[in-house]
Amino acid sequence: MTTQALFSELENVTKENIHYLEQNVLPLTPEQLNWKPRQDVWNVKEVIAHVYEHAKYYHSAFSKKIDTTKFREPKDLFLSSPLGKSMWKSMKLGNARNVKRKMKAARLYNPLIVKSIVTEHVIADFLASQKELLNILERAKTINIRKAKIRLVGNNVIKFRFGDTLLLVVYHNQRHIQQVINLIQHPKFPQP
């Protein structure tokens, strides 16, 4: 795919996430934010806390790599590595906005295990991080996103192409925003 098409996709998905959060999540009451259909399911705040924890790691890694990479020449085409493509495709929603493959959250990013990641201001914090991500995407256009590499969260060994990791993060965000949408559309979701 062209690098321009990749960035366009990433920006569009991120802007959709921001719009949904601003229009549909910020106005929710504390009761709605904390509602869950079952005890083993994350509520809206827990879902957002999960993606915000990932955002904190990846946004820092992206910014640091943009500032320090020696690969300063952007290229017109981006080619995913086979493993990178497999990784982000497994995260991407299906055509019907459904989750194709369920995954288990790492313990450190699971709000049912690490309750401290669910803070009072986690919705606003994540929304701010999504706006920060748009800035990171703009800055990333100035480097070679095929040659620059990023370590996966919780993994000190494997590095993926910067572009593949951007796709992973944005599709991970989209996947969990869809989880929030599904919660809000649940027939028993409390009405204000």
Provide structural commentary.
The protein is mainly alpha-helical and 192 residues long. The chain has a single domain, classed as Four Helix Bundle (Hemerythrin (Met), subunit A). The protein has helices spanning 3-25, 30-33, 44-68, 82-91, 122-140, 162-184; strands spanning 149-151, 159-161. A two-stranded antiparallel ribbon has the order 1-2. Strand 1 and strand 2 form a beta hairpin. Helix 1 (3-25) packs parallel to helix 6 (162-184). It is elongated. The mean pLDDT is 95. Residues 18-180 form the DinB-like domain. This is DinB family protein. It holds the Pfam family DinB_2. InterPro entries: DinB-like (IPR024775), DinB/YfiT-like (IPR034660).
Task: Summarize this structure briefly.
The chain is mostly helical and 192 residues long. It is built from six helices and two strands; from the N terminus they run αααααββα.
Task: State the CATH architecture.
Answer: Up-down Bundle
Q: Measure the end-to-end span.
A: 45 Å
Structural class: mainly alpha
> What general outline do the C-alpha atoms trace?
elongated
User: CATH topology, which one?
Assistant: Four Helix Bundle (Hemerythrin (Met), subunit A)
The low-pLDDT segments are none
What fraction strand?
under 5%
CATH superfamily grouping: dinb family like domain
- For the largest beta sheet, what order do the strands appear in spatially? 1-2
Q: How many β-strand runs?
A: 2
- Tally of structural domains: 1
Largest sheet: 2 strands, antiparallel
> Considering DSSP H and I runs of 4 or more, what fraction of the residues is helical?
40-55%
Rg (C-alpha, Å): 17 Å
Pfam family, one: DinB_2
Protein name: DinB family protein
